[in-house]
TrEMBL record:
<dbReference type="Pfam" id="PF00589">
    <property type="entry name" value="Phage_integrase"/>
</dbReference>
<keyword id="KW-0233">DNA recombination</keyword>
<dbReference type="Pfam" id="PF02899">
    <property type="entry name" value="Phage_int_SAM_1"/>
</dbReference>
<feature type="active site">
    <location>
        <position position="180"/>
    </location>
</feature>
<dbReference type="InterPro" id="IPR004107">
    <property type="entry name" value="Integrase_SAM-like_N"/>
</dbReference>
<comment type="subunit">
    <text>Forms a cyclic heterotetrameric complex composed of two molecules of XerC and two molecules of XerD.</text>
</comment>
<feature type="active site">
    <location>
        <position position="252"/>
    </location>
</feature>
<comment type="similarity">
    <text>Belongs to the 'phage' integrase family. XerC subfamily.</text>
</comment>
<keyword id="KW-0159">Chromosome partition</keyword>
<feature type="domain" description="Core-binding (CB)">
    <location>
        <begin position="10"/>
        <end position="95"/>
    </location>
</feature>
<dbReference type="InterPro" id="IPR011931">
    <property type="entry name" value="Recomb_XerC"/>
</dbReference>
<feature type="domain" description="Tyr recombinase">
    <location>
        <begin position="119"/>
        <end position="297"/>
    </location>
</feature>
<protein>
    <recommendedName>
        <fullName>Tyrosine recombinase XerC</fullName>
    </recommendedName>
</protein>
<feature type="active site">
    <location>
        <position position="158"/>
    </location>
</feature>
<feature type="active site">
    <location>
        <position position="275"/>
    </location>
</feature>
<dbReference type="InterPro" id="IPR011010">
    <property type="entry name" value="DNA_brk_join_enz"/>
</dbReference>
<comment type="function">
    <text>Site-specific tyrosine recombinase, which acts by catalyzing the cutting and rejoining of the recombining DNA molecules. The XerC-XerD complex is essential to convert dimers of the bacterial chromosome into monomers to permit their segregation at cell division. It also contributes to the segregational stability of plasmids.</text>
</comment>
């Protein structure tokens, strides 16, 4: 019988449900992330159930065997690490909340999944970004879309942060956003983004319902959706002749890469991106190194490319 067809006992389901409620209401996780956690933990519970009566009696050895089982099933390293991470997070929650017992060990602690190479974020170079944002059309939707893209590139917003920006969140060259974990941060907004926003806000009054507080609205006169933003940016990438597909996260990556390339201030970039850990931001140092390596190859007299000339 398949896992999907076998219902888990309450002893396995209750901790998962409690954890999901915590992530939803206290940590403000997105529906997509909640679904990911629930799916991974239910799959793990199906594996552990024949060997243990409930989560609190799963051993480190059983989790290690689960990792080996996933490898044998040829799951990719990223997926295995995600599954193990979800298990560790559940036990951290159980320990903090003291569910059923005052002290709970984390059997997943120290069990590492297979190593994998993190793909470097793909970003636009400065010329490509200029090409994308060089929008000459002046109809309402074009002005709105340009303002959205300018703001994302100017301030490194996540798409969820962009669509949730309200009229009172932008003032005096700064924007206030609520990021992951319901954490607030204030980020500078560049002059070009402010100019684009000013042009859009004049038109917005004709497109939004009187009580609507969202900065960016759709034709329905209500807050624009994440899906709609993705679709519009993809269309603009094609219309502007940019050679790589455009999606919102690429503008955030480009913001981080270009800022780090110019300033070298990793900590400042971390703050503006809203990363809780510096390690999440350090991936951009690899992007920056790629740029430096390219400059070196093209310019340094002792580089391999310079030395390839037979003369």
């Amino acid at each position: 019988m398949s896992e999907a067809a076998t219902e888990l006992p309450e002893a396995w389901l209750a901790p998962i449900d409690d954890f999901m409620a915590y992530l939803k209401h206290e940590r403000q996780y997105s529906p997509h992330t909640l679904t990911q956690y629930s799916t991974q933990l239910r799959q793990a519970a199906h594996y552990f159930q024949p060997y243990s009566p409930h989560w609190l009696q799963v051993s480190a050895e059983q989790i290690r065997r689960y990792s080996m089982h996933l490898r044998a099933k040829q799951y990719n390293p990223r997926t295995i690490n995600l599954k193990l991470s979800c298990i560790r997070s559940l036990y951290k929650f159980l320990k903090v909340k003291h569910i059923q017992h005052a002290t709970i060990a984390n059997p997943g602690e120290g069990i590492k999944g297979p190593k994998f190479q993190r793909p470097l974020p793909k970003n636009l170079d400065v010329d490509q970004m200029g090409q994308l944002l060089n929008i000459q059309e002046d109809d309402a939707l074009a002005l709105r879309d340009k303002a959205m893209m300018e703001l994302m590139y100017s301030s490194g917003l996540r798409i969820s942060e962009l669509v949730n920006v309200n009229l009172g969140d932008i003032r005096e060259g700064e924007i206030r956003v609520i990021g992951k974990g319901n954490k607030e941060r204030v980020i500078p907004v560049g002059n070009k983004a402010l100019d684009a926003l000013s042009q859009w806000l004049i038109i917005r009054e004709q497109m939004a319902l009187p009580e609507e507080q969202a900065v960016f609205v759709s034709k329905r006169k209500q807050r624009i959706s994440i899906r709609h933003v993705r679709e519009r940016m993809k269309e603009w990438g094609i219309k502007q002749g940019v050679s790589t597909p455009i999606h919102p996260h690429k503008l955030r990556h480009s913001f981080a890469s270009h800022l780090l390339e110019s300033s070298g201030d990793l900590r400042a970039v971390q703050e503006m991106l809203g990363h809780t850990s510096l390690s999440a931001t350090q991936v951009y140092t690899h992007v920056d190194f790629q740029h430096l390596a390219k400059v070196y190859d093209q310019a340094h007299p002792r580089s391999k490319k310079q030395n390839s000339d037979p003369n």
